[in-house]
Structure formats: structure tokens, C-alpha cells
Specification:
By secondary structure, the chain is of the alpha/beta class. It contains five helices and five strands; from the N terminus they run E-E-E-H-E-H-E-H-H-H.
Length: 169
């Protein structure tokens, strides 16, 4: 399964693409979609949408994963990140790809084994799990890779749970 993890943000949207085959997860590509604050928001969203769409096609992505972000202090950031999440979901839907979301705690638990792991601990585990020579940078890309790893480890369990929760017809 090829998984595209997305760490949404208007200035920096991190992405990480992994290939998951049984217990092995391999990094295919990662990076950051950077947009300028001098550009109007609708153009920034279009840049993000177009790039996500290109990545889905280029890597034949099968599943898209987003971080479920919670904001308690800065409501404006919540709205902006919500717009980016909507654009990512639209790109996935337009390409018939399912979207799954995970909380930061779920991602940390799946990658580092501890739901309150630090950013550096998560980065080091991502580096180790994907056998990368260096820490993945920027931070947004590392977070996106962590999301993809989390999904690689969790999607089978989700499928089993879904199968057993369906009532016979």
C-alpha cells in the first residue's frame, strides 16, 4: 500500500509518502509545500491542492492520511488549517482515494510507543523505522512521514474492526 501522509498548514504543508508491505515500511518521497504570505489565500490553497493532486498521481497513492489537529487558543489558525484539510480531502476525493485522520497522540503512540513523545523522539523513530541516513527535515515532512507510518501500522486493525462491526444482512 502506498500512503500519503499530510501535515496541513497554509505556509508549510508537510508530506510524506511511504510504501507499506507487511511489516516493512519504506520512504518513497517527502518534503514541504511552502506558500508565501504575500500570495492571496485562494492561490495558496490552489498551490497545495495542485501539488497534492500531482503527488497522488505520480506515486499512485492508495490512501491519504491527515493529522486531526485541535486548537484551543488561536481560532484563526484553526480556520486556516481547516481550509487546508478541506483542500487535501478534495484532492483525495477527486482521485477516489480514502482519507483517514489520526490524533497527534495516536501518531506518537504508533511511531514512538508513547503518546506524549517529543517532536525529536518522533523524528528519531521515523528516521530509524524508515532507515534514513539523516533526520527527516523539515519538521512538517517528518510529521507527515509519522502519519503515514501510523496508518501503515493501523490500517489492518481498522479493516478488521470494520469487518466485525458490520451486521450480517
Amino acid at each position: 500500500m502506498i500512503i500519503l501522509g499530510i501535515d496541513p498548514g497554509i505556509a508549510n504543508t508537510g508530506y510524506g509518502i511511504v510504501h507499506s508491505n507487511a511489516a516493512r515500511v519504506q520512504s518513497l518521497h517527502f518534503g514541504n509545500i511552502k506558500t508565501s504570505p504575500k500570495t492571496v489565500s485562494e492561490e495558496r490553497l490552489k498551490i497545495i491542492y495542485d501539488t497534492i493532486t500531482e503527488l497522488i498521481a505520480q506515486f499512485d497513492v492508495e490512501s491519504v492520511v491527515l493529522e486531526d489537529i485541535f486548537f484551543t487558543k488561536n481560532v484563526n489558525n484553526a480556520y486556516i488549517v481547516g481550509e487546508v484539510k478541506g483542500i487535501v480531502k478534495l484532492a483525495a476525493a477527486n482521485n477516489s482515494k480514502p482519507v483517514t485522520t489520526y490524533s497527534p497522540m495516536q501518531v506518537k503512540q504508533a511511531v514512538a510507543g508513547y503518546g506524549k513523545a517529543t517532536k525529536l523522539q518522533v523524528q528519531k523513530m521515523v528516521q530509524a523505522l524508515l532507515k534514513l541516513k539523516e533526520l527527516p527535515r523539515p519538521d512538517h515532512a517528518a510529521d507527515a512521514l509519522a502519519l503515514a507510518i501510523c496508518h501503515a501500522r493501523s490500517h489492518k486493525l481498522l479493516k478488521i474492526r470494520e469487518k466485525f462491526s458490520q451486521k450480517p444482512t
